[in-house]
Design goal:
about 280 residues
């Protein structure tokens, strides 16, 4: 196999040193903002700085207090924002799965030209600036003059996560041999039963991985949500932004650490599901 000349010979120490340096650089760029947020979340002062002059767990206590106090269910509370984010994210997961599972099956078994066309169409939300998508959805929502409630956020979030869920479902479908379905039909199973009892279980790792990505993307989405939120329909990222727009609230940093831990656990779970080492059911 031809070796790229820019990379030193792997038999020499220079190769390992170059790989180690590039790995450290990549980890530094990716993890440095997270490390700074985590360290600052333990600041003991009212005005967080880096590095903190003192350390404390007071802001984590404040987060738990905000989530459990009597006014936690108020319209502007963090608990209500968290509840809205979770409701929107789970609705987005269900809708995206209902769309992508049968559609990825139809694309895999349909003509190649149709599959390529649909793949391009489903990729479009990824190439549009999120600001433009937010403005477009806002104009549509205002033009309809309807009280959409949570659907103001669910519909744009579904548009945003569909490419990710679709890609995972398509990858799962690519590994399923059509002869498996033909074997089920030869045993007397109708097409719909072969799809539900044979194809969908074999797609399960890809479906679950796509759903977890949908949950993470929807829960953390900010740009489009910024255009679509209202006083009554407010998500956790919007609540966090409102607490930092004038001055940095240290409790937001502590809350960010909880979100980072949850997202990290979901990403690890996704890797295990894709590798066949874990399952949600």
């Amino acid at each position: 196999m031809m070796r790229v000349g820019l990379i030193p010979d792997e038999k020499g120490g220079t190769y390992r040193l170059a790989m180690l340096a590039l790995s450290c650089l990549g980890l530094l760029i990716a993890a440095l903002p997270v490390v700074i947020v985590v360290i600052m979340s333990f600041a003991g002062s009212n005005r967080p700085s880096f590095p903190p002059s003192s350390y404390s767990l007071r802001w984590y206590g404040d987060v738990l207090h905000m989530l459990t106090t009597a006014d936690a269910n108020g319209g502007q509370s963090v608990a209500r924002a968290l509840q809205t984010s979770l409701l929107v994210a789970f609705a987005v997961m269900v809708i995206s799965a209902a769309v992508c599972v049968p559609l990825s099956y139809a694309m895999a078994r349909g003509p190649a030209r149709l599959r390529q066309t649909l793949e391009i169409l489903f990729t479009l939300p990824l190439v549009f600036p999120l600001v433009m998508l937010g403005i477009a959805f806002l104009l549509m929502a205002e033009g309809m003059k309807l009280d959409l409630g949570l659907w103001r956020l669910i519909i744009p979030h579904v548009t945003l996560v569909l490419p990710f869920v679709m890609r995972n479902c398509q990858s799962a479908m690519a590994g399923i041999d059509p002869e498996v379905e033909e074997a089920a039909r030869s045993l007397g199973a109708p097409p719909w039963r072969g799809f539900l009892n044979v194809v969908v279980p074999m797609m399960r790792p890809g479906i679950l991985a796509g759903l977890i990505f949908a949950l993470i993307i929807s829960f953390n989405e900010f740009t489009i949500t910024f255009f679509m939120y209202t006083i009554d329909v407010n998500t956790l990222p919007i609540w966090m932004y409102s607490r930092t727009v004038s001055s940095l609230d240290p409790s937001v940093l502590a809350l960010s650490v909880f979100i980072i831990l949850a997202d990290s656990a979901l990403i690890i779970l996704t890797d295990k599901i894709v590798a066949g080492k874990a399952s949600l059911f």
